[in-house]
Amino acid sequence: MNRTIxxxxxxxxxxxxxxxxxxxxxxxxxxxxxxxLGNPTGPNLIRVYQVGPQIHDDEVHQYFLxxxxxxxxxxxxxxxxxxxxxxxxxxxxxxxxxxxxxxxCKFCLWVCPYGAPQFYDGRMYLCDLCIHRIGEERQKGRQxxxxxxxxxxxxHVGTTAEISALIGEKAAERAGKEKSI
Length: 181
Fold this sequence. Notes:
Elements: E1 3-7, H1 17-25, E2 46-56, E3 59-68, H2 76-80, E4 86-88, E5 95-97, H3 107-111, E6 118-120, E7 123-125, H4 136-139, H5 145-149, E8 155-159, H6 160-180
Antiparallel strand pairs: 1-8, 2-3, 4-5, 6-7
């Protein structure tokens, strides 16, 4: 059953809790944030970008856009790897890195449209959707680290069917708001 992630940018408040939780979950170095506002340095398996502030129709608009690996169905990173170090988990469809095969060439990073693979301290890192939490743990309600840490409940991880339904609900909600304006 393929798994994927959806992040509701309308809910994200840019608190970076997802980054901190991910670093703790994967034992990554908790390095400082670049001033005045930015992502913590080091490998960030999810990054949060600030868009704005911008002025449209005399209103100030700003939002935050968290970007993890989206585990593309036809992942360019997998195709670009000369050592076949990147692969899809057969059960979940999650893109993973075989560290024994990876030579750190960064081809995966260069071809990823989201910049998801991260090269740090001589090795590649990639969001694995907390694959170790899937299965029985997930059935008990255990979420990915970023999903559980998000105070705004902007991050959703599930099967492609679950996420497609959620996106449909979000689209209907937006359409309803536009009709009422």
